[in-house]
Amino acid sequence: MKIAVAAVAAIIAVPILIGGVGQAVVKALFGSSTQPSQAALADIPADYLTLYRQATSVCPGLDWSILAAIGKVETNHGRSPLPGVSSGENYAGAGGPMQFLQSTFDGVIARHPLPAGGATPPSRYNPHDAIYAAAYYLCDSGAPKDLRKAIFAYNHADWYVDEVLAQAKKYNDALIGTGDCNNIQAPTPAAIMAINFACGQLGLPYVWGGNGPADGHAGFDCSGLTSAAYNAAGIKLPRTAQTQYNAGPLVPAGQPLLPGDLVFYGTPGNVHHVGLYIGAGKMVHAPTFGQPVQVSSYRWNGDDYLAASRPTGDARV
After folding, report:
1. The overall pTM is greater than 0.85
2. Which CATH code is given to the segment(s) 189-309?
3. Residue 214: CB atoms within 10 Å
4. Residue 159 to residues 148, 163, 164, 165: CA-CA distances in angstroms?
5. Strand order in the sheet with 262-267
6. Closest CA to 93 of 124, 65, 115, 57
7. In this predicted model, what pLDDT tens digit does every residue of 181-231 receive, in sequence order?
8. Which CATH architecture has domain 35-174?
9. Are 144 and 252 in contact (CB under 8 A)?
């Protein structure tokens, strides 16, 4: 059973939503970042988890799991008994749960006064101050647009970047979606509504230039389906696959796809197909002539997958 979503107001009625969507909506209403997996809840101290999630507010678009992964790799969330965690410095002069050099920490807080709640004066050994400073530092270094660059700036080693990204994926795997139109999960109300609309069109024919029955067409083409889906969620997209790709914003390399992302195929100058990702490696799309709107794997042997975008309502139309 799909959700009957007629208006944004319906989202507020969380208890009546079905198929796990209610929980997703609650999460979406209180923050658009990904949600902690069971592995994260079991491993991260509650006070640190709260700080990781709150600190992303100073770097819009940065997922809490990146901060948490750095905290894990650096000091196991402050639990490491090694020198330079709760006091002193390690062999490189770093200290505190996020392992800042004193000069780097001082530079960050000089540019960005830290929110209240930490030490007076701010201290790299205070978890609140260290985690907020790490969020500012990552943002200054290119996050969230270029996560690899930002994490590399934190510790100049490719193995470190790979380890942080792998740990972040373990921490945020809770809301990667089901791939099932009967059990929709997504991180934002708009994504839920777009997926619900697209799933409601399953079986309609592929029609070149088709915008669906509401526009007098028997069915959809690929970009007609995605634009109609997000229009149902109150977000206006450009009409063609190419212009939807151009509008972005693109999901940075290294970040996992989330339900509601648009997935594109072709080359940057010749995008020929788009689908709506619904999790678990699946998308809803209008494939081609003779094939109706359907759920398919978004990757297959020989595909020319290009990239994904995450519509926000700020796209250039």
Report:
1. no
2. 3.90.1720.10
3. 9
4. 11, 6, 9, 10
5. 294-297, 282-285, 270-279, 262-267, 305-309
6. 124
7. 998 988 889 999 999 999 999 999 999 999 999 999 999 999 999 999 999
8. Orthogonal Bundle (1.10)
9. yes
